Amino acid sequence: MAEKVLTARFDVTDSHRLEGYRADGGYKALEKALAMKPEEVIEEVKKSGLRGRGGAGFPAGVKWSFVPKESEKPKYLCVNADEGEPGTFKDRYIMELDPHALIEGSAIAAYAFGSHAAYVYVRGEFKLPIARLEGALAEARKAGFIGKNIFDSDYDFEMWVQPGAGAYVCGEETALIESNEGHRGMPRLKPPFPAVVGLFGGPTVVNNVETLAYVPHIINRGAEWFASLGPEKNGGTKLFGVSGHVTKPGLYELPMGTPLREIIYDVCGGIREGHELKAVIPGGSSTPVLTPDEIDVNMDFDSLAKIGSMFGSGAIIVMDETTCMVRVIARLAKFYAHESCGQCTPCREGVPWIHKILERIEAGGGREGDIELLSDICDNIQGNTICPLGDACAMPVRGFIAKFKPEFEAHIKQGKCPIGPIPNPWNNH
Amino acid sequence: MPKIIIDGVEIEAQEGQTILQVASENGIDIPHFCYHPRMKISGNCRMCLVEIEKVPKLQISCGTQVRDGMVVSTKSEKVVKARRAIMEFLLINHPLDCPICDEAGECKLQDYCFEYGQAESRFSEEKHTFERLDVGPDITRNMNRCIHCTRCIRFLRDIAGSEEAGLSERGGHTAVGPYLEKAYQSPFSMNIVDVCPVGALTSRHFRFKARSWLMQKTRSLCAGCARGCNAYLWTYQGRVLRMTPAENDQVNLCWLCNAGRLSIKRIQAEDRILDPTRSTAINEAAGKIKVYLDNDQGDKIGVLISARLTNEDNFLVCKLAREVIGTNWLACVKGESDDRLFGPLDTPLPEWFIRKDTNPNSQGASDMLTCGDHTEDARALINAVASGQIRVLLVFSEDPIAAFADDPGVAESLENLDFLLVSASHRNLTSERAHLVVPEASFAEKDGSFTNEAGRVQWLSKATQPAGQSRSAWQTAQELANLLGAKWSYASAAGIMSEIASGVSAYEDIDPAAIPEMGVMKRQPDNQDSQPSAEGDPDARVDPVDTDQ
């Protein structure tokens, strides 16, 4: 199996404690980075090909370089630990099992673009990750890895944990900033972009937990090493959270670009016995669904974009033939309708409308023209909203219709769900 | 300066302007709901999306600043489709209850629906609905009609300076309303009824009274305090049903306080005086006065003018006292003095927006008084009544008993008068003791000018016919004067203004035929010429744009 980077310490006893982290070489990268010029740190991360692991895949080093050097207001780093994308479960394990990697990565990132303060915006339900992170911060503060004059470098850095209150949209960077400031979590208009006007009006970088956790490794082992782990422009490894109808669901660290087929059949032991693959959502619920004949795709940002889907957060949801595609997308649409912040018209009105139509089709009330209507509503939402939440609903709806249109038509024609009600798992015994 | 092309027309724009601003200045209409020229941009309605060359997504024109060389289309196929889509989205959960909605006729949603909407709805699901909530005694909220433009939130937070409204719930269930209290506390809260582009917020005082297109709209003034806010008076079948703000950057921007709006309720209140005590009242009054004049005892007659009257009313009453009666007993009760700033007006609206002086024309009354012989102090005049020096008192629109409520002797001394004439619009403590009462027109029923606290002379326009037999105080003064032998023939307030302009020095520069909508500053005393006016530098303001929603 390939090299482990982020998960290498996950099996160590008390992996979340500073003692063990130090013994494994922890905070050496911070010391090394503080001896470098900030621009050199950015350059190193740029060269590594590290792309944002939250879903959009924007090159991390480039993002840092957008922050203006001179600023009247303090600059901030916001760590996006909201992890709301359905199917995703990776950042929580980093915070639970190796929180110091996140702290060290954050300190290096903040140093690189001239910030002295970071907030970790953590999903409120993550009780253990929050506790572990708070504990790790206390340890690091005591040991002098955060605070004033770190490693006698004249560099000060402080970091706080800010629990969220449970809204998917707060994973969107400007909504996260609003929420972090204590306001209702709603995306802001862009421009201005956070790199110019962000948290408390200061230039701000928002990075995903996983992205930052890679940074110490890049500093320690070099950009070339990291880039060589994955294909071109998609450096490093990736945490894949595989769920659904595979025999071994779970969190796996694999090189970027690992073929999806290999992940499903080799890593995760294939589809549960007696069943066959029907559909895969490759990168979290907002990425367009794939059919079995598309799973030879390599799991990286560019390869998935090429076939009209998205790499997203690396949350792979596998479904076998017992799954009704209409019911799946109806359930996802329900999620998006519930999570729309309600601010802008197309998302607030359009997404619940999509949900209602899908529920009606699933319940047997589908009508001719519904499929075209759904596509048109998606068309009217996409690109017309303040933030990508509307798109995040429209894209998978379009995807499911495109890939499984006959199943939608069967629902409408038969006036019922051809697959029938969800089987009660307790009846099997 | 950036040059941009909108719909094929090259336009020179100002640096920092948005596409929507440039378009509207050049007569290109871009539909919008959430954008309001006086408010911060929120960009949530998405109605104003336009296509910009080389930009892949449509952009909101309200929030996108112009750049040199920008090529914008407000009518491209993509834009038209998006606009239709937004209209459809806004209407799917809307109750479409225009026939019973107060906003009908002045509703942006209704207007744009005609222009950009579709005749038939593709929505066949159940609409989501909300409970109705009265947000206080003045405003009703109907969330079903709300389009979530957040103008009310932004008005209260950014302009009224009152952080009391916000969004609750999420998605389609998002509601707009007060955070904690059931009622908005801001004294400016009713402006949200005006800024609401739909019928989600309606006035509880105006609801169901009249359809907007059946009413007459007169640009006039609020008479509630010394600020002199510009206002529209809306009348239907002779009744003033509502007051809404009119734009004046120097006075009230485009806002009114709640108290001012509700002052129209007084116009036809139960205590309104509609008829004189007797039909012969004026003749009787003239007869009483004549007796004194015949005995050369004009100085036993006192006259009170009022800071509630127009300049024209006061001018003619003063003229009556000075030239016809020949008395120096001429005074005006002063309003409460206010040492707080008057301007420049900024947002959030300062606490000093509403003036302590509740009279609309204290400045003007003082100007009419001080341009000739007069008594320095109304108190001195009352004392002269008590001592018997004054035997006949003519009171115009004033209530000395209430004004000097701290002195119970005032009421008693009025009892000693030989004759007390009161001209008033509403019954008051003094009118109850008068020998004769003549009815006076209210501020909504007459023309004339008020001079506000900053010295701005503004025109009051008659919105409706005077109730009953009431009339302007100048008309009563003219009739009295003519009965006493004068030969006055003033036909209108404007005519009197001409005489004021030629007779009162501070008003010399004013062209009575052309007082602009924004009013005109009276001339300041010479020693203050170099001082900036109390309103601040008028050039420092943004030009008004259509703020009628």
Would you mind describing this structure in some detail?
Chain A is α/β, with parallel strands linked by helices and 429 residues long. Chain A has helices at 18-23, 28-35, 38-48, 60-65, 91-97, 99-112, 127-142, 173-180, 209-221, 223-228, 260-267, 301-306, 325-339, 345-365, 370-381, 389-414; strands spanning 76-81, 117-122, 158-163, 204-208, 237-244, 250-255, 277-281, 315-320. In chain A, the strands form two sheets. Chain A has a four-stranded parallel β-sheet, sandwiched between helices. Chain A has a four-stranded mixed β-sheet with strand order 6-5-8-7, with no helix packed on it. In chain A, α5 (91-97) packs across α6 (99-112) and α5 (91-97) packs across α7. The longest helix of chain A is centred in the last third of the chain and has 26 residues, at 389-414. Chain A is globular. Chain B has 549 residues and is α/β, with parallel strands linked by helices. Chain B has helices spanning 19-25, 77-92, 108-116, 151-159, 191-195, 258-262, 281-294, 311-325, 362-370, 378-387, 400-403, 409-415, 429-433, 473-483, 493-503, and strands spanning 3-6, 9-12, 49-52, 59-60, 71-73, 133-134, 139-141, 165-168, 175-178, 201-203, 216-221, 230-236, 239-245, 301-305, 330-332, 392-396, 419-424, 436-439, 448-451, 456-460, 520-521. Chain B has a five-stranded mixed β-sheet, with helices on both faces. A five-stranded parallel β-sheet of chain B has the order 15-14-16-17-18, sandwiched between helices. In chain B, strands 6-7-10 form a three-stranded antiparallel β-sheet. In chain B, a hairpin with a 4-residue loop joins β19 (448-451) and β20 (456-460). In chain B, α2 (77-92) crosses α3 (108-116), α7 (281-294) crosses α14 (473-483) and α8 packs across α15 (493-503). Chain B starts with a strand and ends in a 28-residue tail after the last strand. The model of chain B is unreliable at 527-534 and 536-549 (pLDDT under 50). The interface between A and B is medium-sized, with 30 and 38 residues.
